[in-house]
Design goal:
mainly alpha, 4 strands, about 5% strand, globular
Length: about 375
């Protein structure tokens, strides 16, 4: 029981790492076309995330892998029930990789523009879908316990409270459209606005000159909208769906962090504003997981069908092995991540960027031309 709770907390920490770090990656991508005025500024924005975006995605892979190993029933129920949503997110992430890596390979503005639009769209889509997905975990999904052999729904009274039922599994029986409600749509709006503000703050902090000033001005506008939307969604979640009074604590801390971030932004303290906004997103993840507990998949049909932490956990041996591996490798990953951001901490000046890079369009099919690595 102790190890299963520990891994529930560790998975929450992995999601904090992903959403706080990948959040500004998505924000930069969403702003790539609307904020940048020319190719130099777009290159500058891409350079702010260039050394980090692929490393930030590792947090998602680790969170998914940890869920699969520590809570296989949670993984199976979520990934099979929300398959289409997760497929769209995965597709968007693949397109974004291609857009970042391929835009600089050919020295042609039309080529770059197409990939920049692909990047922008593939940043907006998961920013909305992640919020809707987590909102479903808070609201509860139309989950029932179904017999594997016959597909019949098991009566709630026959579902054990502290273990899985042999020959049966938790399944999302409501279908894809049951995942779309006003509450989950608002959740998508919340993460989209938070990531948009997070990206604007990051660009303001990592660039210099007019680009930094415009990003800061934009963050002041989106910041108000993100705070308002987050407040409405969080109060709705707490009053309508939360079984835990303790969830008020991370909710209040999240609100204070976001408000303090905006106050620092108004004072021109970009570093403090970004750091506090980072803490606000982390607090939101803590709120979601504290709201879910003691369930990992809440059923909106009947509480007896909810998948609890105890029910969904792997064997004690598996959790012990995972804990030993986490103790060894997590500090290494954290050290390397912090070191990487320290190394690339300097501001980027758009006017100092040379845009004349990439293979000339007429040379694309010329096999005699050497293909060198092209930067962002």
């Amino acid at each position: 029981m102790t190890l299963s709770i520990l891994w529930f907390i560790l998975i929450a920490i992995l999601w904090i790492g992903y959403l706080t770090l990948e959040g500004f990656d998505f924000g930069v991508g969403m702003l790539l076309r609307p904020l940048a005025k020319n190719e130099q500024e777009r290159r500058a924005m891409l350079k702010t995330i260039g050394p980090h975006w692929d490393g930030n995605e590792v947090w998602l892979l680790t969170a998914g892998g940890a869920t699969f190993a520590a809570f296989p029933e949670w993984y199976g129920t979520l990934f099979s029930g929300a398959y289409l949503v997760l497929f769209l997110i995965l597709l968007a992430l693949i397109v974004r990789i291609c857009a970042i890596e391929w835009r600089g390979k050919i020295n042609d503005q039309a080529w770059r523009d197409r990939w920049d639009w692909a990047h922008t769209i593939s940043a907006w889509l998961p920013s909305i879908l992640w919020g809707a997905a987590f909102a479903n975990l808070v609201q509860g999904m139309k989950i029932e316990v179904v017999t594997t052999a016959t597909g019949e729904v098991v009566p709630p009274a026959e579902v054990p409270a502290d273990s899985l039922l042999a020959g049966a599994s938790h399944q999302l029986t409501g279908g894809f459209w049951s995942l779309i409600t006003p509450f989950t749509l608002l959740g998508g709006v919340v993460t989209c606005l938070l990531f948009l503000t997070h990206g604007a703050l990051y660009v303001a902090l990592k660039t210099a000159g007019d680009l930094s000033s415009r990003a800061e001005a934009l963050a002041k506008k989106t910041g108000i909208a993100s705070i308002a939307a987050t407040a409405i969604w969080a109060l709705w979640a707490q009053l309508a769906y939360s079984p835990n009074a303790i969830a008020w604590l991370p909710l209040i801390l999240t609100a204070l962090a976001l408000i303090a971030s905006y106050a620092m932004l108004l004072k021109g303290r970009q570093g403090w504003a970004f750091g506090l906004h980072f803490a606000g997103i982390a607090g939101a993840v803590v709120y979601i997981f504290s709201n879910m507990a003691p369930d990992i998949m809440r059923s909106s049909i009947n509480p007896a069908y909810s998948l609890t932490i105890t029910q969904g956990a792997s064997t004690n041996t598996t959790l012990i092995i995972m804990t030993v591996a986490a103790v060894i490798f997590v500090p290494v990953v954290l050290f390397y991540t912090i070191w990487g951001y320290k190394v690339f901490s300097a501001r980027i000046h758009a006017d100092a960027i040379d845009t004349n890079e990439g293979l000339h369009p007429t040379k694309v099919r010329d096999s005699s031309q050497p293909v060198a690595h092209i930067g962002y």
